[in-house]
């Protein structure tokens, strides 16, 4: 599964409608409504290890991806299980050089806002990736063309 920051992954693009994505990926294993935002629903595919977020107030369009899929890659290079510094400074170097890093008790997050990309790391390796559609401004998504 190749991630394409600002666009999506594989054949999936941010802004696609739920029914289009279900046609491609099949029925999800679980559907969750966000307890803090009733306009968000998350669909999970267990075998693919992905969770996609849809905005109901945006006509049920895809806005966010969370994944632990070991086949996630960028430009053909795997990301999950790779040392964090190698992922940031070699694999994703052309994409981002400045990362906002937050340290928690047992893990770190590395966020690059222009690409709305977050790398989660634990024990010095990437173990999860989050990616969303960037914003044009405070209230409007910058949907891919």
Automatic annotation (TrEMBL):
Organism domain of life: Bacteria
Protein name per the record: Uncharacterized protein
């Amino acid at each position: 599964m190749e991630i394409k920051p600002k666009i999506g992954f594989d054949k999936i693009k941010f802004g696609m409608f739920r029914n289009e994505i279900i046609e491609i990926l099949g029925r999800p294993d679980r559907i969750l409504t966000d307890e803090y935002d009733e306009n968000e629903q998350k669909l999970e595919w267990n075998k693919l290890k992905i969770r996609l977020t849809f905005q109901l107030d945006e006509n049920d369009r895809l806005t966010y991806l969370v994944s632990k899929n070991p086949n996630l890659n960028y430009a053909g290079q795997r990301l999950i299980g790779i040392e964090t510094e190698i992922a940031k400074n070699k694999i994703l170097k052309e994409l981002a050089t400045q990362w906002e890093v937050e340290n928690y008790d047992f893990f770190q997050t590395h966020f690059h806002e222009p690409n709305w990309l977050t790398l989660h790391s634990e024990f010095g390796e990437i173990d999860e990736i989050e990616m969303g559609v960037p914003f044009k401004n405070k209230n409007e998504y910058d949907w891919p063309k």
